[in-house]
Design goal:
The structure is a homodimer of 321-residue chains. The first copy, chain A, is of the alpha/beta class. Chain A has one domain (7-319): Ribokinase (UDP-N-acetylmuramoyl-L-alanine:D-glutamate ligase, 3-Layer(aba) Sandwich), CATH 3.40.1190. Chain A has helices spanning 49-57, 75-81, 145-154, 169-174, 176-183, 193-200, 205-214, 254-269, 274-291, 298-301, 305-319, and strands at 24-27, 31-37, 40-47, 63-70, 86-87, 91-94, 99-105, 112-118, 137-140, 162-166, 188-192, 219-223, 229-233, 236-240. In chain A, strands 1, 4, 5, 6, 9, 10, 11, 12, 13 and 14 form a 10-stranded mixed sheet that branches. In chain A, helix 1 crosses helix 8 (254-269), helix 6 packs across helix 7 (205-214) and helix 8 (254-269) packs antiparallel against helix 9 (274-291).
């Protein structure tokens, strides 16, 4: 089958099913968002870094979701997660309301303005990992670095193969010490360009990435929204444009589903070579390109691995010379 | 020889020499600039859109320079142009001073702030083309669209193979009617992202490019500085990141030398297929990546086709997955 070798092993025409213990786990937020873009406003969108991540990763491999919700968390949203092989054993319900983020995008759709953040049950969240078989791949999605550290402390390092994390401007500014401790203990960090510059105080992204690597992670991935993504590892480098889209509808979750596609592909293949990293970054980009075509998870819910395969082939043609 | 087929024919280990009538001509400005970057300030830098273009194109093919200078134009600058196969027959000297641009770059190095523009002899410039053999490839570099039209009117359309143009925010705002007339008569336009948005009032670059194509040019190229370049043609699309640089010293001339590399490569090969366009866009990017590593033409003066070949091979590895 032509081009077959370019796909992560395990990425077949059929979607992934939960058949064994998840090799991949994510800790992060599960949220009820309110999102406003130039194209419309939507109340109560199913969101959160870990929701987006796990739904996207579930296209490639079973994934364990470590997160907290409140008593108001709709059964309907659980049903959405169940459309993919998402293990919800560690999705805890606490008294109170689910975490809520309200954001707004301007005409350029590049940066979200946070209108309101209600932490709610997140304030009481103490993750307790009780895996029978510890996942080898772990993603610490955007959440308080103190919680990311807490999770790292509960994991048996010897059983880990690859740990990556995300973060955001708020933690870089307000929890820098904790974040640096996380960075010192992981294999990969995924940042956007503004965060990389903020973390390092270095305007040049190539030098910023080198400074981030000096903080610990061997792999540094810098997301640049509509301008694509950069991957750094030792003296290796990979740059990929964004998949060209005429209609970007809602950028929320693009970064989280990028990371989900990336980590899902890596965990499914078990291959951490640079070639596999590049392929997985490209697959992450493709997943994210679907995400932004509708509110919340709506666009991702409509796609299968066939759609990803199709867009990946087009993407390869668009980028090769 | 491995990878040989990826180079434009004519791009050999030796640099290009003037041996026959130029197949490529450029009209644009020749200037004496004053440039200030976070890394230093330089008075009297040899600049101008046509100078940068012809010096870069001269790496690939002989190029005829159509421009005007004042009586103060240093003999030394003529000597710099003569380092490449630049035909200066159409470089006219008029009484008065050479065009002068003074610009300043902030820390992000992405956009130049124009401090002063002294048009000087440009105000009296009336290009008169007296080619024995009319070049088949023409680049209308950034200059008043009225002059671009004037040149187009003097050319025999039947003998033209490919005409491209550049422009800038000032002409889009103040000479829109003339610019639209130019666009209706050319094969390719090279714009930066801000100019594409300004020209079309469309924030999404993919849709903006489609709108520009509807104005005339079959090929639309959108330059995004540190974020690379996009090429549009019918249903074809090509996206290329920027060559990664740790040290961007002075971005002046990046766009003009990109166009010079692109058009030089196209004219040298005589191949206008989409594959050749992609290769030429990549070569343009490589030439521009050298340009920005020093003030003015200084970095380009130090390189040969071997350096371009070397960087192109690295670039291909950086972009492929």
């Amino acid at each position: 089958m032509p081009g077959r070798e370019h796909f992560a092993p395990g990425l077949t025409a059929e979607n992934c099913k939960m058949s064994e213990a998840a090799k991949l786990a994510v800790i992060g937020t599960v949220a009820i968002d309110q999102v406003e873009t130039p194209f419309g406003k939507r109340e109560r969108v199913f969101g959160g870094s870990a929701s987006y991540f796990s739904y996207a990763a579930g296209l490639f491999t079973p994934v364990a979701l470590v997160a907290v919700v409140g008593e108001d968390f709709p059964e309907e949203y659980r049903g959405i997660l169940a459309e993919r092989p998402v293990d919800m054993t560690h999705l805890k319900t606490l008294p109170g309301k689910t975490f809520c983020w309200k954001g707004q995008y301007g005409n350029d759709l590049n940066t979200a303005k946070t209108l309101e953040t209600q932490l709610n049950v997140l304030l009481k969240f103490k993750p307790e990992l009780t895996f029978k078989t510890q996942p080898k791949y772990v993603f610490l999605a955007n959440i308080d670095p103190a919680l990311q550290l807490d999770v790292l402390n509960q994991l048996d390092r010897r059983k880990l193969k690859y740990v990556a994390c995300d973060t955001m401007n708020f933690w870089i500014e307000n929890k820098r010490a904790e974040l640096l401790k996380v960075l010192a203990r992981i294999d990969c960090v995924v940042l956007n360009d503004g965060e990389a510059r903020q973390l390092t105080q270095e305007p040049n992204l190539i030098r910023a990435a080198q400074k981030v690597r000096a903080m610990g992670p061997g792999h540094v991935i810098i997301k640049k929204g509509e301008h694509g993504v950069l991957l750094f590892y030792n003296h290796e480098f990979f740059a990929l444009p964004a998949y060209p889209l005429e209609n970007v509808f809602d950028p929320t979750g693009a970064g989280d589903t990028f990371a989900g596609g990336l980590m899902g592909s890596l965990a499914a293949s078990g291959d951490l070579s640079f070639a596999s990293m590049k392929r997985s970054v490209a697959l992450g980009q493709i997943v994210a390109s679907h995400t932004v075509e509708d509110f919340g998870l709506e666009a991702l819910r409509r796609i299968s691995q066939d759609n990803i395969r199709e867009r990946l082939e087009i993407f390869k043609r668009f980028c090769s010379f």
